[in-house]
Every structure is written in C-alpha cells, then in structure tokens.
Amino acid sequence: MYETLSLYIDGEFLEGEGRVEQDVFDPATGERLGRLPHASRADLDRALAAAQRAFESWRTVSPMERGAILRKVGELSRARAKEIGRNITLDQGKPLAEAVGEVMRCADHCDWHAEEGRRIYGRVVPPRLPNVRQLVLREPIGVCAAFTPWNFPYNQAIRKIAAAIAAGCTIILKGPEDSPSAVVAIARLFHEAGLPPGVLNVVWGVPHEVSEYLIASPIVRKVSFTGSVPVGKQLAALAGSHMKRITMELGGHSPVIVCEDAEIERAAAMLAAFKFTNAGQVCVSPTRFFIQEKAWDRFMARFTEASRGVKVGAGIAPGTTMGPLAHARRVSAMADFVQDARERGARIEVGGERIGDTGHFFAPTVIVAPPDDARIMQSEPFGPVAACVPFKELDEAIGRANSLPYGLSSYAFTGSSKCALRIQNGIEAGMVNINHFGQGLPELPFGGIQDSGMGSEGGTETFDGYLVTKLVTQMD
User: How many helices and strands in the chain, by DSSP H and E?
Assistant: First the structure.
C-alpha cells in the first residue's frame, strides 16, 4: 500500500477533509498513487502557532533527550527502509535499491545530529577586570521554515529536520508535492519516537504561496531551502527583506577534470555510475567532463560502454539501474539540450532520445565536443546527459571549470599530488572531490558558493544556521 498522504500539524495527521487536494502520480506508468491535501491559510496559521508554542519548551529540553528521539528515528528508519523506499520509488521514480539506500543513509544523519547536539558549546572570554565575567552563549534561533525538493525527498528533509531539532529549534517543512511519501513517513517516525506536538509540522500546497506566507510571518526566524537557483534567489530576497537567517543549497553544473595520469578506466566507470544515479537528477551530478587529450580515447571508450550498459526501466522492476525522470517537462528539457548541442556541431555518442511512450524515460546520453556556448555547457541539465570535451593543459581545464557562476560540487581524477594540489587550490566550489566521491556524509559540510547558495547542511557548520550568539557580561 502506498503511503496515506496528509498534513502533520501540532502532532496531528490531517487528511483531505474539505481541503484542496492534488493527484500524485507514478512517473514510470502515469498511474495515480494518491491524493495530497493542501494546507489552507488556517492550517498554515495553526502550524505557525504550534511551532511557536512548542519552541518555548523545546528550547529548554536537554540535548540528551532531543538526541534520544533522533536516535529512535534513526532506528525506525533502518527498520522500515524497504517500505519507505518502495513508496519513494513509486512517486519519485528512482530504482528501489537507490531509494532504500537513501533511507538507510539518512539514519546516520539522525545518529550524528543526536550526538553533536550535545556538543553545542559556548565559551568564556577572559575579562579585563577581575570582577567581570564574560560569556558567549549559543542558543536556538527559533521557528524555522524549510523547503525541500523532489529528487532526494527523504534525504533533503531529514537533513533540515535533524539539524533544527538537535539545535533546539522547531520547524515547519514544506516538502515536494510530486514525491510526498517520504516526508509523511518522516513525520510518522518522529511522531512514534515521541517528538512533542508542534516541534515538527509538515504542510503542502502551491509552492510560492506557502513559501511567501511562511517567510513573511514574524514567527519564522530561519529559512532553509534546497532547490533551483532562480527560486532560491527569490526566497533569499524575501527572507532578506525581513532580515531572516537563510541557508540556501541551490543548483550546480559540476565540472569533472580527468588528467592523463589518472586511473582512466576506473575513473570512467565510477563517473558513469555516478552520472546516471537518480537519472542525473542530482544537484551534485557530474555534468561537464573535461578530459585531457592523451586520456581521451581510453576514457571515452570505457565511459560510453558503461553508459550504454545502463538498464532503464521502472524503478520497482528487478535489475533497473536508472528509472524515469520525475516529470514530463524534464523529458522535454533533455530533448532541448540534445537538439541545441546537435545544431552547434556536437556529436551525440550515446542516447539522445526519449524511450517509449509511457512514463518519463530518457536514454542515458553522452554528448561529445559541444562548444562552450552550447546550452549543455552553460545550464545545468538535471538529467541523464553528460557533455565531454578534451583539454590540453590543466590550467585550461580549471579555467573552463570556473567559467560559470555556479560553485556547488566538482570532481577530479589524477595520480599526481602536484596536480591534485593545483586542482584543490584552483577550483571554485564548495566541495572538491579528488579520485572519489566523498561528499554527503553527515559529518562533512555540504554546500556551495556563488549562485549555488550559501551556508552548510552538514558537519558542525550545520548548527551555525540554527543558532544565535548571545553575549553575557556581568560585573560583581
């Protein structure tokens, strides 16, 4: 059975009951899975009031007690990963193994925040006078509004929720209306784990209407958003007009540099597997591949072979390694990228077209030698399309990698410590991965620079966005 969809406000699960509802579909078949209730204005007001009321007591709850609830959610996530993952596959499309793995990995985020929440320390500053004491305290910022995307519906939601709750904040989360089952499942786990009413609230609705209403509310003190650059800029401007703290994890256009001294076949196989994970619908997916000329033939032979070997199908079907795109509009977007590249003289080496007429399937695609002004080299495809171009010298590749206003993630493969140092010092990105894909762990900072956002959703830096600093000076 697919998840029963609902709002979650002040500790209660609220279904349709006269509310506006929208259909939720399986992107592999077009079958309707369920009906998702939208929050009314009264529902949003109730969520705001509940979060504010709950904050007054939750902020004083022991970090050990908060951590116990988070650890319980981690346990429940592992125990129910197959059930939750199946529903993610149904409404989001990714292969079942990927969906179950997403839930299992998110349990680590709960465990990590449960422990690190106990180590949110202040400090004592030595005074200039003997009868003065100076303390710097770190306190929860208050009610948070969070907005999460459809591509990793469990992962993106749990990152924000765990950080806010561990810091002593309360949170209202608007998840993705197209793939809502994961967020409803999270609410059920926290409810079962004993989270007090109002600490977590889940709402749905027309995205811009919900976000504008919540961000404008004087109750909300912090805004966290994961999604596209244009929408992120709009929400950041709105939050800025109200002087509210923000964390923005926005889109990227991740460059890959493969040097001639790298383990070429290994790099090609790893990159092909990563590129087509979640059908390329990943903000940190490698998209612009810069391959040194002497490694070009070996890399492309292995990379195209692996790309052709991807098995596309319904995520629930055994053996599927790439599912459908989440929306019909993403299929059209992929076709536009391919057509533009072809018109500009690029060669379509693999794929390049829609698969079938049922569901939102697009073939794994490799575009060879598109010019720098091609759309695929300028705009994030957010789909199963890779653009591969050769380069001669490393400085040239670094310059081309840095030519866009994005700075989320980047990748490089080299066997030289000298080249590795030049890459890590030269690439302008929030995350630089050399010879592996090491990002995304709960203990590591996850975030970008420039148009790719600000702030971090991992590591101890996570808590910075959910805490305020208070100076206390006292003279005896």
Answer: 14, 22
How would DSSP label each residue in 302-363?
A: HHHHHHHT--BS-TTSTT-SB---SSHHHHHHHHHHHHHHHHTT-EEEE--SB--SSSS-B-
Enumerate the β-bridge partners of residue 254.
Answer: 286
> Which residue do the tokens 């018109």 mark?
343
The predicted pLDDT at position 186 comes to 98
Task: Evaluate if residue 460 carries a pLDDT over 90.
Answer: no
pLDDT above 90 covers a percentage of the chain that reads 96
For residues 249 and 255, is the Cβ–Cβ distance under 8 A? no
110-163 pLDDT, tens digit per residue, is 999 999 999 999 999 999 999 999 999 999 999 999 999 999 999 999 999 999
Task: Choose the catalytic residue: 102, 249, 260, 457.
Answer: 249
Please compute Rg for the chain using Cα positions.
23
Q: Return the ∠ at Cα 321 (arms to 296 and 24), rounded to 5°.
A: 125
Q: Which of 106, 110, 144, 283 is catalytic?
A: 283
Is 388 a residue of the active site? no
What's this model's pTM, rounded to 2 decimal places?
0.95
Distances (CA, A) of 282 to 9, 228, 429, 445: 30, 11, 16, 17
Residue found under tokens 């988070």: 70
Catalytic (active site) residue 349: no
Q: What is the mean pLDDT of residues 294-322?
A: 97
